[in-house]
Amino acid sequence: MNPFTSQPQDSVGRMGEVELTRRIAEWLGPVNPLPPEGIGDDCAVYTVEAGRPQLITTDPVIYGLHFDDSVLPEQAGAKLLKRNISDIAAMGGRPLRAVLSLTLPRETGVVWVRRFFEGIRECAVRYDIKVIGGDIARSEGFLGACLALTGDAPAGRALTRTGAGIGDHLLVTGGLGGSLSGGHYKFEPRVREGLWLAGREEVRSMVDLSDGLAKDLPSLLPPGSEADLDWESLPVREEAKRQSETDGRHPWLHAVCDGEDYELLFALDAGKAPEAFLREWKERFSCALTVIGRIMARGEDSDAPPGIRIPPGLPELADLRAYEHFRSN
Amino acid sequence: MNPFTSQPQDSVGRMGEVELTRRIAEWLGPVNPLPPEGIGDDCAVYTVEAGRPQLITTDPVIYGLHFDDSVLPEQAGAKLLKRNISDIAAMGGRPLRAVLSLTLPRETGVVWVRRFFEGIRECAVRYDIKVIGGDIARSEGFLGACLALTGDAPAGRALTRTGAGIGDHLLVTGGLGGSLSGGHYKFEPRVREGLWLAGREEVRSMVDLSDGLAKDLPSLLPPGSEADLDWESLPVREEAKRQSETDGRHPWLHAVCDGEDYELLFALDAGKAPEAFLREWKERFSCALTVIGRIMARGEDSDAPPGIRIPPGLPELADLRAYEHFRSN
Asked: What are φ and ψ of residue B141, in 5° steps?
């Protein structure tokens, strides 16, 4: 749905900021507590549970970049929240409170904004998050929203990207690739899974796959190591396979480069057998969990940068190493 | 300074996101702790002091709206942080940690971005704030940054907008009006002052003047009341008087409508004499403190909306009541 209206009476420009803020509080309903905990004061005021590590992250959604007219306003709103929730999940955290900064052209339609916030509300209810503050700014032509999300770590530790060692197994939740077919906004962040993983001491480090395995995996690798993937085991999503048939790129390339998977990738202690871990997982969660490889010491003859070991005979995967861009997702 | 470069080799588009993130961490220097407390993981991880109310706020700066080419990049960066600090100050809080979401066109010059972050760093050092995380997104033409700032309330209470009563005195720090002459980015948030005020129980509620007295004052007014200002006492800034001479608008109008004063406005208990309070203030702070009026019960014959009582014989101030816009500052 296109966010803009040609009817001035249906635009946020006609409404004014005070009225728009009042409506937003109304649209958010129960996920917006009364001030000073919720929208309506200079800051939101809240308390935290003593002794727990606190988490905070921020990510935007921008019209034309993270969503377009093919995405419903509800889906764009939910995506804004879910992108941030996924970061909290990646630390084994519990999402708690969000503040939201909205930038709108005057010609943005009130209906679009209402549905955007309804998407935020529905998602916030589902993940038990409160939206407690924000800001509205006017722009010329640019439509975007930036959210900061706080959380805490009930397990008493946050699972960082640091801590994996040589020999550790690499495991990934769900499936990879093909996010442009809709997965980029339909995904569900792995909060329950992340919370459980943070409570397992054999899980040594974790990251969420927002930019894709090729870019996100290296952040887990300790110095002098590389990832040796079992390429045949990669959980390639059906959407990625279908795109492969269309564009001729290998499905594995889609799986590691598409990005916006929002799955969890973690390192399991080298001394533990993944089989028992997988059995425990299956008893708890319906989402898949796959062992995709191990962290290996890098050969002394290799001068390659840290990353994924390229399988022989698959030169098309060599461009993985060059995978770096000015963030496009 | 214009943020964009015509030389591709000097642009952030050439640099790539990984390198730009590395540089930003470098530019921020000591105000960016090591991960997981600082930039570099999915979330920033931190601890809080037990028992204190926690605060969070968010505000952006947008090129063309909150700053333009006449503003140095360091000033724009500092303004981003200071807008948010002022919200923390308005609760009597202590600013602590920031996360920052940056939206840049590819053609943004690296030098501009470096100086923007140097402005953030210098300001963060001055207010003892850590910048602990963020995000970089690409845009077409839109340059903006959104910051979320956390803090806490060392006095054990946060000074909200609620709590003032009939008869309370209204006091304001510093001077008002004329912010377009440079005050909108040169201001210093009243953190020390706010912290002290939160510790004084005779201070009942507080707000920072970001949109101007006419718009921000009503948020302090209890139902059935209005503000009776002593117009002659208003601390009108010299810049506002100079603008008056140019544009012919009454200096009082500048003082209450210009916005971006970032001064503190608070209500002092009706039972307390302001004189003693002002003496104590003077011993501690160099910035001015002025009694500008009182909160009065609204006359039964008045059907005016809550706000500032318009003085008789000054019809030019009547448009105060209509002061509402889709936020332009």
From this structure: 85, -25
- Judge contact between B8 and A58, C-beta under 8 A: no
Q: CB A45 to CB B146 under 8 A? A: no
Which residues share a beta bridge with A296?
Answer: A226
Give the separation between CA B113 and CA B188, rounded to whole angstroms. Answer: 22
Residues of chain A positioned with their CB less than 8 A from the CB of B82: none
Domain that holds residue B224: 169-316
Chain B CB contacts of A97 below 8 Å: 56
What tens digit of pLDDT does each residue of A25-35 get? 999 999 999 98
Where is the domain boundary, B125, B152, B179? B152
Q: Measured between beta carbons, which residues in chain A are less than 8 angstroms from residue B15?
A: 326
Q: Are residues B37 and B117 in the same domain?
A: yes
What average pLDDT score do residues A239-267 get? 94
Separation in Å, CA of B240 to nearest CA in chain A: 25
B145 and B23, same structural domain?
A: yes
Q: What is the pTM of this model?
A: 0.93
Q: What is the CATH number of the domain that holds A294?
A: 3.90.650.10
Q: With respect to residue A245, please indicate whether it lies within any of the assigned structural domains.
A: yes
**ipTM for the complex?**
0.92
Phi, psi of A205 (to 5 degrees): -160, 160
For residue A90, being part of any structural domain is answered with yes
Give me the total of CB pairs closer than 8 Å, taking one residue from chain A and one from chain B.
Answer: 224
pLDDT tens sequence across A276-316: 999 999 999 999 999 999 999 987 656 666 788 887 777 67
Interface test with B, best of A41, A206, A207, A211 (most B CBs within 10 A): A41
